[in-house]
Amino acid sequence: MSDDPAVSSAPRAGKLPRWATVLLVASLALNLLVAGVVAGAIWHFKRAGAASADGVPPGIAHLAKALPADKRERVHGLFRDAQPALKGLRREVHQARRAADEAFSAESFDRVRLEAAQTRQLDAERNLRAGYQRIYQDVGGLLTVQERRDLVKERNERRPWRLRSWHSEDAPGKGPGS
Hints:
single chain; mainly alpha; Four Helix Bundle (Hemerythrin (Met), subunit A); 2 domains; 5 helices
């Protein structure tokens, strides 16, 4: 064999085989795909949002931004004032849900115990829902008819299609079996 590098059959140092280059490009493409999915999820969930610090749900918070400052503060105040009571109601829902889960997953299944736990859970959820309904009723009294319509439109646009009525025109396929 010759000592001449041009004649040598060994691969040059620093040069990757073709399969390694293809593998690196595929890995980069996969990483970019995952990064895009994560970024899209973050954007979606940040946009969907959670209640603000004073407990104003995203749809009302979004609408409240367009309200005059005094009305916006009154809307936020309604939710802020209700937070201690709502926090207690949410705690009751969590406790009732835990009790129902424990009854369902108990070593010895007791139908009566499960039914009682589910009834307590339903009552707790109903009480929490009623608490929010009272606030919405108070908010409705503060808003003009156009502001109320805008709130309904905003709420329906922000709600994922799967949570809309399957009878509605905007649900894909317009219902089951279609």
